[in-house]
Amino acid sequence: MQAHILDRYGKGQTLRLGDWPDPVPAADEVLVEVHAAGLNPLDGKIRDGAFKPILPYKPPFLLGHDLAGIVVSVGANVRRFQRGDAVYARARDGHIGSFAERIAVNESDLAMKPASLSMAEAAAIPLAGLTAWQALVERAALKQGQKILIHAGSGGVGVMAIQLAKHLGATVATTTSAANADLVRSLGADIVIDYRSQDFTTLLSDYDVVLNSLDAATLERSLAVLKPGGRLISISGPPDPAFARTQGLNAVLGMLLRLMSARIRRKAKRAGVAYSFLFMRADGAQLARLSELIEGGSLRPVVDRTVPFAQLNDALAYVDTGRAKGKVVVGIR
Question: Does residue 82 sit in the same domain as residue 170?
Answer without folding.
Answer: no
